[in-house]
Amino acid sequence: MATFQSLDEAREYFKNDRFATNNGMQIDELGEGTCVCSMDVTEGHKNAHGGIMGGVMFTLADFAFAVASNHVYQPTVALQVSINFFSVPKGDRLIAKAACKKDGRTTCIYDIDVLDSTGRTVAQFIGTGYKHLK
Fold this sequence. Notes:
This protein is α+β, with helices and mostly antiparallel strands. The protein is about 25% helix and about 40% strand. The protein has helices spanning about 5-15, 20, 55-70, and strands at about 25-30, 35-40, 75-85, 95-105, 105-115, 120-130.
């Protein structure tokens, strides 16, 4: 059973995720075990080389992981995550697409692809979550 009854309800809940929302991250789509989050890239997101800081992509992917996993079961918290960076993002927007790969009794695993404005996958995040049983 889904935690949030609507996309607006999820947005209302996650507006309290201050680090993500203060950096312009938003929830675009929400489904059973899936979600899409995105953000516009600004000068404030760039590193010393002029590229997008890896932490920006990590945070967007982590936000998508939190949204998707907590839509399935709340509260779910991260046990372990990893990220692989494939390429330097192009354009002015990042999109994170989360999909549940395993939904067990107490744990879950999500794959999150981070795409740039051209549609290329620039990073892959894998998150293992723990369902804090009530």
